[in-house]
Amino acid sequence: MKGMTQKNEIIHVDFNPPTDARLAVEAMEMAELLQRAPAEHFRKLQRADFFRLIGVTNGETEWMVDFSTFPASPGHWLLVRPGQVMRYDFSRPWSGWMLVFRPDGLYGNDRPGQSGEFNLLHRLEGLGSQHTLDHQQRAWMDSSLRQIQTDCAWAGDVTLRNEVLRLQLASTLLRLSMWQEIRQPMPVTEPRAWAAYKRFQLRLETDFAKAHKVQHYALALGMGEKNLSRVCLATMGVSAKACINQRLVLEAKRLLAHTTRPVQAIGHALGFEDATNFVKFFRKETGLTPGGFRQTNA
Predict the structure, then answer these.
(1) Are residues 73 and 209 in the same domain?
(2) Could you tell me the residue range of the domain that residue 10 belongs to?
């Protein structure tokens, strides 16, 4: 994971495995990660376009992900999704593992949606942010990541290696999902509804800063507005409009807390032509003005 570029106060971290840039999955111990960049890098807010699964084996720490803090000790694992803003905490010594993978590491040469790969994406979507593993589960996870680490360094054919890593990644994530379901069963979602929601989510991630109306997404997906809202209610428990607003609020919070850009500029970047409308929207959704939120969370 080299090649960092500065973007305001948030740095972007590129996916670039040192063993082979063509790999879609990599496992490393935290000690190895810390050798790849200066200490200052790990004190900064970070955003990446790949997944990070981080676990503690010794010591204690506290991760921050999008305004939520996660105290962690041995057995705690954190899933950080693409686009989320996070910060490490090395104010106290701790050691552990990190599994990183690009979204395309979840499937092979075929795009998802035709077979079991899409179910894996569904399972990943249902995974919580933090997981607590017991002693036996920790041992399995340690063994799994050590095998992935070994296979990443294998000098064989990269296509074969990526397929092996994909299957190991699937096993790791499905087992994590299984352990989570033992503690808290996932709600049953009709596959077609979930597939439609995923299409909406992908489009929302692309268009949220320029399109705030449900009609835009319904037309883009070839479905009616009421049908799209039914899909969102069935999968997420909220309407399509609420999903759009939640995504806008999250990005507004990131920009307010982690950059020094003026409120008017942030509103404009999020598709609000008038700063007053942005302030009204933010206050309605959060109960705070943009300036008040920034002052509290800077």
Answers:
(1) no
(2) 5-183
